[in-house]
Write a structure and sequence with these properties.
Layout: H1 10-13, H2 37-46, H3 48-63, E1 69-76, H4 82-90, E2 98-102, H5 108-111, H6 117-120, E3 129-133, H7 138-145, H8 151-154, H9 157-170, E4 173-181, H10 184-196, H11 208-212, H12 215-229, E5 236-240, H13 244-261, H14 273-281, H15 286-317, H16 322-352, H17 369-388
Parallel strand pairs: 1-3, 1-4, 2-3, 4-5
Helix pairs in contact: 2-13, 3-13, 3-15, 4-13, 7-12, 14-16, 15-16, 15-17
């Protein structure tokens, strides 16, 4: 893995604590990160396998009746990098485990309902990571700045949102709220780039200048959001966004650390693998069953090493006792290897019952050369990845 240069947990470095002032924030800063852009991108990429498995575990948990989910809220003015953030960070995980929703101007149907109605319709189901590109906070940002409704109405929404989010958390949804804060100067540069590039002009709106003219009003509105809705159950993380690589790195790390602390394991099954394996084998030719048998050590060992590496990375993030962590990892490896022995023995039994089964090679039973070869190959692949980085 690339070198971890986080000097401070980004959740602490970027959280909107009481007394936080947006006006004094350096939007080109990289709070908590001790490296440069290249090191940041390398470390972010190195989190891919860990983040991917954690997301898969969450998805698997949801498939067997789990109630937990994660909601990632991304707010920011035009050009802050919301779209790129979603593409880059969520590109590390399986799309089937992610639900994306974007909230623009309410439709006529949505206006006929409570402002949270359209938000609730897009909440992630158990096992999924939901991503909101803009969110219910538009109803205390845009409506305030553009004076779409009376202050007496939108001013009451802060407390309502806090209570609504608290109920979500209590029902099993972990909420991560990110505000991408780009500077006025950088926003101007990015808007100009959209005008200059023929392939980006579609992203420019003639109304962008009207919004830009309200810059200070939006800064005041965001400050109020941080003051009123950065809570213990759903804090705001304010990301300096002039350096896109840093905001992406920070969101990736916060999401990863949050998933690690959820301690999501692979769900256990309520049916017997032996019974299902026997039934499946009946539908397979002897040649296919032999191939499956011979591949089993390598397939299982590779999966085991990936899972144990995730456990090791997770332990590092949690600052767990190294010796205790290695003992748990060793115990888990022993469980996997015992299960592998039982699986191989069962497959030998299934093959022995067939008249056309060939003689089995000597290195397959037990933990033979194929298992060792797979483990060695796995380490070799990891070494090559490290050398490239």
């Amino acid at each position: 893995m690339a070198e971890n240069l986080w000097t401070t947990d980004p959740r602490e470095a970027l959280r909107a604590h009481p007394g936080f002032t947006l006006a004094s924030m350096d939007r080109r800063a990289t709070p908590g990160w001790g490296g440069d852009k290249a090191q940041g991108k390398a470390f972010m990429d190195s989190r891919a396998s860990l983040l991917s498995e954690l997301q898969e575990r969450l998805f698997a948990e949801g498939r067997v009746g789990g109630k937990r989910s994660v909601l990632v809220v991304v707010q920011g003015l035009d050009t802050a990098g919301k779209g790129g953030m979603v593409r880059h960070v969520m590109g590390y995980v399986d799309p089937q485990g992610v639900s994306l929703a974007s909230f623009g101007v309410p439709t006529e149907e949505e206006r006929q309902h409570h402002y949270l109605w359209r938000i609730e319709n897009k909440l992630p189901t158990p096992g999924r990571i939901g991503v909101f590109d803009r969110s219910h906070y538009e109803d205390v940002l845009v409506v305030r700045v553009d004076e779409l409704i009376e202050e007496s109405v939108w001013s009451e929404r802060y407390d309502e949102i806090n209570e609504w989010e608290k109920q979500l958390v209590e029902s099993g949804t972990t909420i991560l709220k990110f505000a991408l804060m780009v500077s006025h100067e950088e926003q101007g540069i990015r808007l100009m780039e959209r005008l200059d590039r023929p392939d980006k002009r579609w992203k420019y709106s003639t109304g962008d200048l009207d919004t830009r003219a309200k810059w200070h009003a939006f800064q005041e509105a965001y400050q109020a959001v941080f003051d009123r809705t950065s809570t213990e159950h759903a804090p705001w993380y304010v990301l300096p966004a002039d350096r896109k690589w840093f905001s992406r790195l920070a969101l990736t790390e916060i999401l990863t650390r949050t998933l690690v602390e959820m301690e999501i394991g692979w769900p256990s099954v309520r049916w017997s693998p032996e019974v299902q394996r026997r039934n499946l084998a009946k539908s397979m030719s002897t040649a296919s069953l032999v191939e499956s048998y011979e591949d089993t050590p390598a397939v299982v060992t590779e999966a085991m090493e990936e899972t144990l590496e995730v456990r090791r990375d997770s332990a590092d993030l949690l600052d767990a006792d190294p010796d205790a962590s290695e003992q748990r990892i060793a115990a888990r490896r022993a469980e996997w290897l015992t299960d592998l022995e039982e699986t191989l023995a069962h497959k030998r039994e299934l093959l022995a019952a067939r008249d056309d089964a060939p003689a089995l090679t000597a290195d397959i039973p037990g933990i033979g050369s194929k298992t060792k070869k797979a483990a060695k190959s796995k380490k070799s692949k990891k070494g090559k990845k490290k050398s490239k980085k």
